[in-house]
Design brief:
By secondary structure, the chain is α+β, with helices and mostly antiparallel strands. It has helices spanning 2-22, 216-227, 235-238, 248-259; strands spanning 36-41, 44-49, 57-68, 74-82, 88-95, 107-113, 116-122, 137-146, 158-164, 175-178, 181-184, 187-189, 191-198. Strands 2, 4, 6, 7, 9, 10, 11 and 13 form an 8-stranded mixed β-sheet that branches. The chain has a 5-stranded mixed β-sheet with strand order 5-8-3-1-12, with no helix packed on it.
Length: 291
């Protein structure tokens, strides 16, 4: 019996030596079954005025999802995201997590860099509350602006992404903390971003008064442009039916949208701000009602 135990010990020693020297393999924490987590970040399709790209931006959201192993109670995480700094600028990153009674994390700090950002979040250092990611959970919101320069005066879309990477100094790797140990996140889904330039300003179709809403004054404004020569520097807004010209039917379209039951609203972009994607001779030099 003693001889068998000695052989068993000799067989285990190399494994113990490996663990002591190199640590547990990724995905293992304190003898548990392997765990795996996935990071993902939402992309965006952004229409922008090529004359002023930096006036436009978008929000993205980072999510965490445990994809392997029994549901783990996590105590924190760190994440790094890179961007093409000629096209994008990260202006803000905020933690979305709260505890069961509305508690905020003990630590949530972002380092904003020209080429991306990293963030560390700790919510369970004192045993108060933990988070499990059995379902995909949004944890960070990221605000990005477009950059003037390459995008200024562009005539074709640019394709880029928000990409998970080890970033910063010191370099911050993507990992999740479970039972005081770190698990590297090797499965990531980057966020594709498509930036589409447009001539002119964004607008709301039918809003002749350019105040951001549709009312009686807009129908009157179209009639005044047609019959008394009132000035208009956003003809696309007056073209309520998107026919490519401004006529009495545009005034009727606006007035009936307001007062005739069952009548259709103006064509897109409506009711929110957007760009006219129809090729015609009209344009929109300025429109104060949209950013």
């Amino acid at each position: 019996m003693m001889k068998k135990n000695l052989y068993d010990l000799l067989g285990v020693l190399p494994v113990l030596t490996m663990v002591l020297c190199f640590g547990l393999p990724d995905g293992f924490v304190n003898g548990q079954d392997p765990l795996e987590f996935q990071y993902s970040i939402s992309g965006a399709d952004v229409d922008y005025a090529s004359s002023n790209p930096s006036a436009f931006g978008f929000h993205s959201t980072i999510s965490i999802h445990q994809t392997l192993g029994e549901a783990a109670e996590t105590g924190g995480f760190q994440v790094g995201v890179g961007i093409d700094q000629e096209l994008l600028l990260i202006t803000e990153a905020e933690c979305l997590l709260t505890g069961p009674s509305g508690e905020t994390p003990l630590f949530c700090e972002a380092q904003i860099l020209p080429h991306g950002f990293n963030m560390g979040v700790v919510y369970d250092a004192l045993g108060v509350w933990t988070v499990s990611y059995e379902i995909e959970t949004e944890v960070i919101t990221v605000i990005c602006n477009l950059q003037d320069g390459v995008l200024t005066g562009a005539t074709s879309p640019a394709v880029t992404s928000l990409a998970f990477e080890t970033i910063g100094d010191p370099a911050i790797a993507n990992l999740v903390v479970v039972n005081g140990g770190s698990i590297s996140v090797t499965t990531t889904i980057d966020g594709p971003v498509i930036l589409t330039p447009h001539d002119g300003a964004p607008l709301i179709r039918g809003d002749a008064s350019q105040d951001g809403s549709l009312d009686l004054a807009d129908g009157v404004g179209i009639l005044q442009y047609l019959f008394i020569g009132a000035a208009a520097d956003c003809l696309d807004a007056l073209d309520a039916n998107d026919s490519g010209n401004v006529s009495i039917t545009d005034a009727i379209r606006v007035l009936c949208a307001l007062y005739c039951s069952g009548s259709p609203p103006p064509e897109s972009p409506f009711p929110g701000c957007g760009f006219d994607s129809t090729a015609d001779s009209l344009g929109c030099l300025s429109y104060p009602g949209c950013p």
